[in-house]
Amino acid sequence: MTDLVQFLLGGLVIGSIYAIAAIAYTGIYNITGVINFGQGDMAMISAMVAISLYETGLPYPLAVALAILFGALLGAAIERLAIRPLRNHVLRAIIVTIGIGGALEGVAVVLWGTEARTLPSPVAAHTLHAFGATLPSHSLAVLAVAGALVCGLALLFQGTYIGRAFRACAVNPFAARLSGIEVSTMSALAFVLSGVLGAIAGVMVAPITLMQYDTGLAIGLKGFVACMIGGLGNPVGAFAGGLFLGVVESLASGVLSSGWKNAIAFLLLIAILLFRPGGLFGELERRAR
Amino acid sequence: MSLWRLLPFALVLAVVPLLDSSYLTSVAIIIALHALPALGLSLVMGFAGQISLGHAAFYGLGAYGSALLALRLGLSPWLATPAAIAVTGLVAYGLGWSIFRLRGHHLALGTLGLGIVASIGFVELRGVTGGSIGLSAIPSYPLPGLDLAADQSFFFLAWIVAALAFLAAGNLVDSPAGLAIRGLGDSERGAASLGIGVARLKCRIFALSAMLAALGGALYAHYIGFISPQPFGVGFSIKLLVMVAIGGFRSIGGVLAGVAFATLVTEPLQDLGYYDVVVFGALLVVITIFCPAGLLQAVRDGARRGIRLLAPRAG
User: Fold this and answer.
1) In chain B, what percentage of residues exceed pLDDT 90?
2) Lower CB count within 10 Å: N or C terminus of chain B?
3) What is the nearest CA distance from B44 to chain A, expressed in angstroms?
4) Where are the alpha helices (DSSP H) in B42-76?
């Protein structure tokens, strides 16, 4: 019983990281129809920036804020330089994002080498006990940040003009343009948002798993799987999918070796793609473009 | 006409041994070995229009399959390789039936997932694959009077096999079946409306493509003599994608040029660490944005424009 609680809690914590990454995909997919295969590497490189800034002696909040700003600028630059020129060609855009991911990974190796680095947690190290399970304080911080992000995004999308414009583009870009919404601005916004979310996911995961050049790929791929479980383009579903994936992985790690644990996510992905291609919660309604 | 396609192969086969450089010979072997899976990917992606991000898995299946048949069953490599290719083809055909229910992004993700599961399998099935240490002492192809483990002689085997594969692929693309494949790549609905069995065709071309990759993998295993899971990961699938993109996706001759270019550019960088990864990523981005028809075509267009500028205008 205590083991079960322990696995469940651990799964929720890592799942909320996947969930943040997954939400980042849905924004871009909804606006541009592109899956950003470089997402995980954007998260990794932002986290590496935070780590480097922190190591030069900047206070933690400032280092993280600058890393998030860096993530936002990176997202904007990628949208402007690589995605916008290909606007109507999804296959080429996928290939370009794969290339960007590879290049970012290579840049990380050139700048920071291959050894794993860590970032301290924003909260003091502390161990909490609940229902017979132990939980480090950083896990609570991760859950709190993820919860706050979801609430914040929900407010942004439901309550503000820009959020409504964003959703309008997702549902029907053509009609959105007719009503005077600048779709290319929204596309840039989607990339900025995903850069920010990626940076936050990277900074939150760094104290748990360490950060190195290839960590991004893992975060990114798990984020995809979460996204597909929840239904591509459905942010609430993506969040739920992230938590679900985290819990399933964590429960499976009690039974399987860590190598096979990684395979679970992808077997789950293939099963979902084949049997419920719209995800467990369905895709956001969208028109063919 | 299609015999013209063999010209670059004949040139390489004639010139490289004359230069008598062991470095050049080994690079040429790598080009031939990578050209086979890249050719397969080009058939699937360029001609049939179906994305695959997991082709390294079939390269790996060919390598592990042939090595295991030779090591565990004591089969001659000459028999183990065709057997491994056949098995890979069957696996791909079976996978094709389910994976090609997907399109676009979903297909990209599904094939990526397959590639990752396969690469994890190569590591985790320790009893069979030797885990991350891999398999060693894989026998080379026996041939009386020739040591096919040596670069100088293996070079001929690799390039002759590659030449035959390219000739066959070129003939396939030009044949009526190739017309159907290209039709599928242009418009799936259009092809289906003309009575082409789209689902079956996709599976066939996928199986053929996997068999080409497996052939490359098997040659690699018996050439190097030992294999580990590392070269068969997602990174290699991406590398193949870059090679095919440089070649221009829909050009059999372009594939060879793409593989050669990518290998010649990145091979010297490999000793410097991970610069080759940066170059690959950047190449993929730049080529996809600026020359969608491939680097070769871009150079050709550029040259044509240059000639037009230089040539005196006809009155």
Assistant:
1) 37
2) C
3) 14
4) 56-72
Tokens representing A88 are 């109507």
Under 8 Å between Cβ of A259 and A51: no
> Is residue B25 in some structural domain?
yes
What's the ipTM?
Answer: 0.79
pLDDT average, residue stretch A268-286: 71
H helix and E strand count, chain A? 11, 2
B interface residues, A as partner, C-beta within 8 Å: 51, 53, 98-99, 101-102, 104-106, 108-110, 112-114, 116-117, 120-121, 123-124, 234, 238, 241-242, 245, 273-285, 288-289, 292
The terminus-to-terminus CA distance of chain A in angstroms comes to 50
CA-to-CA distance for A93 and A85, rounded, in angstroms?
9
Q: Environment class of residue B288 by beta-carbon count within 10 Å: exposed (0-12), middle (13-18) or buried (19+)?
A: buried
Chain B CB contacts of A102 below 8 Å: 238, 277-278, 280-281, 284
Q: How many domains does chain A have?
A: 1
Is residue B292 one of the residues assigned to a domain? no
Nearest to B51 among A91, A273, A277 (CB): A91
Mean pLDDT calculated for residue range A138-165: 87
In a domain, A137, yes or no: no
Tell me, yes or no, whether A153 lies in a domain. no
Residue A283 forms part of a structural domain: no
Q: Residue B199: give the domain boundaries.
A: 11-231
Question: A50-64, A68-82, A87-101, B253-267 — which is least confidently predicted?
Answer: A87-101
Asked if the Cβ–Cβ distance from B102 to A101 is below 8 Å, we say no
Q: Is residue A165 part of a domain?
A: yes
Q: What pLDDT does A287 receive?
A: 36
What pLDDT sits at residue B59? Answer: 96
CA-nearest residue to A78 within chain B is: B285
Question: CB of A224 within 8 Å of any CB in chain B?
Answer: yes
In this prediction, residues A107-112 reach a mean pLDDT of 86
How many domains is chain B built from? Answer: 1
| Domain enclosing residue A27, as ranges | 2-121+161-275
Question: How far apart are the CA of B216 and the nearest CA of chain A, in angstroms?
Answer: 24
